[in-house]
User: Fold these one by one.
Assistant:
Number 1:
Amino acid sequence: MSTEKQKVVLASGNKGKLNELQQMLDGLNFEVLPQSDFNVSSVPETGLTFVENALIKARHASKVTGLPAISDDSGLEVDALNGQPGIYSARYAGEDADDADNNAKLLEALKDVPSEQRTARFHSVLVYMRHESDPTPLICHGSWEGSILTEAAGVGGFGYDPLFWVPEKGCASAELTKEQKNAISHRAKAKDQLLVQLKALLDV
């Protein structure tokens, strides 16, 4: 096997995601590079599902760079809100909204909903495309069941973590250590699937 690592572009400028993926793919002869290294612009996420948007981002990055690409699309689905905020999780309270804005809007939307009806889950879809015209990209989906609290708890994590109750741990996601979260989260489950599929694809 060649000792030269296969370059793969991450369709994100998020340094945290880059570090996590690099660690995950360690041993698979991959070098994960952020799309910012290639001046890849962000692409409009016009899909109506996490899968569609992940494919859009991966295809765009692969087209611009000529390299295989990995992308991630994730968000929160709340049953009492018919699946909202869903694919709009990061911009639920508006295009320029921050985590606090989004959390405030979610609490307001659920203010009259009793605790037993506040069920929710995080979703993460990871996509691997060998090239922009890849007809059979790897698509991995992980979900994480929980419910929405009536007020924020904890200071860790990001996004909706302070409002997401994790039943198996008996606390909010924002009260978990980074190690705990990364072992059981929606993204961790999607990554585990991707690792298995990549190993099969690369026959390692």
Number 2:
Amino acid sequence: MPKKNLFILPQKHHFMTMFLFITITAFSQDLEPRVYANVAKNLNVIAVGYVFMDGNVLTDPSLPIKDFTIQSHNVAANYIRTFGLYNKLARIQVSLPYSFMDGSLTNTNGNVLTGSRTGFADMKVRFGINLLGSPALDKSEFRNFEQKTILGVSLVTSIPTGKYYDDKQVNIGTNRWGFKPEIGVSKRFAHVYAEAYGGIWFYTNNNDYLNGKKLEQKPTYSLQAHASYYFKNNMWIGFNTNWFFGGKTVIDGVSDDSQIDNWRVGGTFSTPVAKGQSVKFQYHVGAYTNNGLNYYALSVAYQYSFF
């Protein structure tokens, strides 16, 4: 079968719809335990992580495509700072990823289309505050505090810093803003930490989709749950799951069959390696999908915490 470079030659079909979900999936369909965890104020956390994704990422069954597979290598730098706000524990988190992606697909004519992309993806900024159960305590006060139930809220903003070509269908960046208000509840038991979050992603329009077309996307709803077991040496292991649904796309006023219903499951393992330092491993895979996004992801991250 002849091969063409899909990532360079513009196509008539809405292939960008698929890769738009890839970038969102990689950095917003993630499973993030301990987002509302109780910690001391004035804590700084620097983390560097690597994520590998592999699988079929077809999101629109109406497209004339038989199969779509991508391998994505992503590195990200993260910074977290906690502080007091009206005597409540608040935090700000900034994440900037860089991606190396290779993909291929087969269209209905039997042509194999291949290509690659490299560059920065969209930056993500999270601002959150724990409204109940988590006062802003300094390091000495925090040692004697016993956590019960925490209720927190946050706003995640996706900033269009990613590499984007307005005449190409496959891009790392999304060329639009995204906002996710979220509410979370967490509770610490003897050795178990349980969490549940719910949020909604809202998106601005991409007015430069395929040489001036307007790409709209309906809100995407997300639910997330985690259960982690803690050992005496601060090592912990967790079970993670999330559910994303909605997100139908509309191109120049015409909607397509791109709504997603995606359930993922995974596990996390974190272990300390030195004072203030830890390494975290995570694996997650699609448990159910109605519309593509059937891939697996494996990540490792190094974290350094200091006051």
Number 3:
Amino acid sequence: MVKRIFDIVTAIIVLVLVFPWAYLVIACCIKIFMPGPIFFKQKRTGKNGTVFSCYKFRTMDAKNRSDEFVDPQLNKYSLGNFLRTTSLDELPQFWNVLKGEMSIIGPRPHMLVHDEEYKNKIKEYSLRYAVKPGITGWAQVNGLRGERDIRRVKMRVDYDLWYIQHWSILLDLKIMLRTVGVMIKK
């Protein structure tokens, strides 16, 4: 209950104070530099294996409708890369938090196709579904973000499981502060 209250209060603060300004700037940039929809939604696995639509600011070419990471339009100088590197593409996920599908802190949800792959290769992978997925997590603030190499994914799962076993409100606050620090640094 404490975690849910923390999630709701934090999501409301971000959605009221940060999101409108960020939305205005990011939406204009996406419309100018990457014509097409502003938002991107994709099915992800949540708590207890429930599938939900995860929202993000679109970072890839609107023609790319696949579940692949690779996009020829996504390069180190692109708007999409900037949004991903700074994690600003994740801001719409605060709606997912408010809806109760995600938490601020927790294991990052993966694409469904990757869930299937990782479940078959990493025995403990499905244990991540014991809690709601998060916008950020213990693995991400420890440098394990977005890799597809199975050894690195296994490390990420180990960090996720450590987080689940050691959860506390203080740990969540520590992860939030470290996340802000990483975003500012980038």
